[in-house]
Amino acid sequence: MRKFNLLFLALFVSLIAFSQQNNLVDVVYLKNGSILRGIIIEQVPNEQIKLQTSDGSVFVYQTDEIEKIVREPVSSRNRRVAGLNDTGSRRGFIGLSLGAAIPVGDVSDLGAGATLSLVDFGYLFHPNVGIAGKWFGSGHVVDDVSYGIGGLMFGVLASTPISPKVNFEAKGLLGFGVFTASYGSETESSEAYFGYDFGVGLRINTSNKISLLTNLDYMGISDYQSVNITFGVAYRLR
Q1: Residues 6+ apart with CB under 8 A from 18
Q2: Assuming Cys at both sites, which of 17, 138, 161, 218 could form a disulfide with 85, CB separation 3.0 to 4.6 Å?
Q3: Looking at the DSSP assignment, which residues form a beta bridge with residue 96?
Q4: How many helices (H) and strands (E) does the chain have?
Q5: CB of 195 within 8 A of CB of 153?
Q6: Chain mean position to CA 33
Q7: Whole-angstrom Cα distance, residue 232 to residue 234?
Q8: Could you tell me what percentage of the chain is helix, strand and coil, using 3-state DSSP and rounding each to the nearest 5?
Q9: Closest among 80, 83, 113, 85 to 98, alpha carbons compared
């Protein structure tokens, strides 16, 4: 299980670093006074560059036409010019998601179950970094006994646009969870245990107010670990 934890943690840290790099736009200053913003998709040293603008057009400039090339932080205006996803007006989301919970390791004999996040939340204080949280529950049935896991977690969210409408996101959450076992009319509950969740996913902004969510999470609470695959819908917050 430690290998899974290290893998998801490494992926999360890598995404944060990539997010910071992706929060820049290429600015080309030409000797004729023109200034162009976009993304350099090809560069041949001492010969030419290819610059892609927001409408998908590709322009080729020879090195002797260029005064200088710089990279600037992506403001809301520059995001539109460069064709990147503008998160300035809608920085957060809150919704619900559901899917499959697949136990791994010592609890794999529980078999696949269902998981539901009644609250799936994220908010970006920076174009690429913010907070996330979820209130969730998972369930498995083995030999007429129902096992439930529920909890509440909060943590860090990293987000980077991969198209004008799609964000690739990663989160690292900490919190607590409890276990229940139901057989017949009897239900037993455990004390609260420390829990964690490392996840990646896509947030697809289908309109100004609605997003679709896809998530792949690795969650652990005490001796219980599972890989959760979920899909959901969220309302976009200002």
Answers
A1: 160
A2: 161
A3: 233
A4: 2, 14
A5: yes
A6: 40
A7: 7
A8: 15, 65, 20
A9: 113
d(CA 181, CA 191) in angstroms, rounded, equals 12
Contact 88, 208 (CB under 8 A): no
- Looking at the chain, list the stretches that DSSP marks H as alpha helix, in order from N- to C-terminal side: 2-22, 76-82
Backbone angles phi, psi at 189, to 5 degrees: -120, 150
Element (H, E) at 227: strand 224-237
The token pair at 168 is: 């690739």
| Cβ partners under 8 Å of residue 173, min gap 6 | 132, 133, 134, 153, 154, 155, 156, 196, 197, 198, 199
pLDDT by residue for the chain (238 residues), tens only, comes to 555 555 555 655 555 555 545 556 788 888 888 888 888 888 888 889 988 876 567 888 998 989 888 887 655 444 444 444 444 457 899 999 999 999 998 899 999 999 999 999 999 988 789 999 999 999 999 988 999 999 999 999 999 888 778 889 999 999 999 999 998 778 889 889 999 999 999 999 888 889 999 999 999 999 999 999 999 999 999 8
Nearest CA to 3 out of 220, 228, 229 is that of 220
* Cα gap 219→124, rounded to integer Å: 23
Q: Which helix (H) or strand (E) holds 131?
A: strand 129-142
Question: Are 28 and 43 within 8 A, CB to CB?
Answer: no
